Amino acid sequence: MGRTIFLTPDVITFLEGEGNYTFIYTNNGKKYLVSKTLKSLAEQLSDKFLRVHKSYLVNADYVVERLEDDRMLKLSCGKEVVVSRRKIKEVSGLLDHTNLIRISA
User: Fold this and answer.
1) 14 near 75, Cβ under 8 Å?
2) Residues 13-52: pLDDT tens digits?
3) Which first-to-last residue range defines the signal peptide (predicted)?
């Protein structure tokens, strides 16, 4: 606590907001707590970060699977993140335009 670290956006897998605090999860399994809102951090990150829920901001580069009719996203770290009902269409459209290949099994 009380230290400053620098992260490049490409190492961030997702962010989870809890009130005025946000947990930042990285691709090496580390988790950082910062005293900033998810909204304020979203404004600093690129368009590849998708606001999928009021509590989650996901890096599209780490999405490996879309589950339950796009209601859930599975990330490369194994975490499954809920997509809010009102964001499903928007998130699906954005993910359809990334470099992901859609394979239905």
Assistant:
1) yes
2) 999 999 999 999 999 999 999 999 999 999 999 889 999 9
3) none
Burial 71-97 (b: 16+ CB within 10 A, else e): eebebeeeeebebeeebeeebeeebee
In degrees, rounded to 5, the angle at the alpha carbon of residue 1 between the alpha carbons of residues 53 and 40 is 30
Instruction: Look at residue 13 and give its three-state secondary structure.
Output: strand
**Cα 32 to chain centroid, rounded:** 14
Q: Compute the distance between CA of residue 82 and CA of residue 31 in angstroms, rounded to an integer.
A: 19
pTM for this model (two decimals)? 0.86
Q: Which pLDDT does position 27 carry in this prediction?
A: 95
Contacts of residue 23, defined as CB under 8 A and 6 or more positions apart, other chains included, come to 15, 16, 17, 31, 32, 33
> What token pair was written down for 34?
């910062």
